[in-house]
Amino acid sequence: MSRIVFRPEAEADLTAIALHIAANSAARAHRVVTRLRSRCEILRQHPLAGRPRNELGEGLRSLSERPFVLIYRTMGDDVEIVAILHGARDLPAAIARRIDRDDP
């Protein structure tokens, strides 16, 4: 069984999603964040459930929870959640900014 690790940016994504939705409905924001976290938990048992997204970065995969997209990668026994973004965003640009920060 894999361990789920959220990058700080992915946690920030969840917070931003919650705050945005909570402006209209705190209950809905809670439901959406719970649904997104549950979707991430699927990866604990099935780390390769998402589709390969090498165009976003080597080894990256995505799993949809509409309208959001979970971007992650497997690292040994861990699943690292890289980002949780709205599917209408420019995913390649958003992910490139995050991956570029990882480079020395």
From TrEMBL:
<protein>
    <submittedName>
        <fullName>Toxin ParE3</fullName>
    </submittedName>
</protein>
<dbReference type="InterPro" id="IPR007712">
    <property type="entry name" value="RelE/ParE_toxin"/>
</dbReference>
<comment type="similarity">
    <text>Belongs to the RelE toxin family.</text>
</comment>
<dbReference type="InterPro" id="IPR051803">
    <property type="entry name" value="TA_system_RelE-like_toxin"/>
</dbReference>
<dbReference type="Pfam" id="PF05016">
    <property type="entry name" value="ParE_toxin"/>
</dbReference>
<keyword id="KW-1277">Toxin-antitoxin system</keyword>
<dbReference type="InterPro" id="IPR035093">
    <property type="entry name" value="RelE/ParE_toxin_dom_sf"/>
</dbReference>
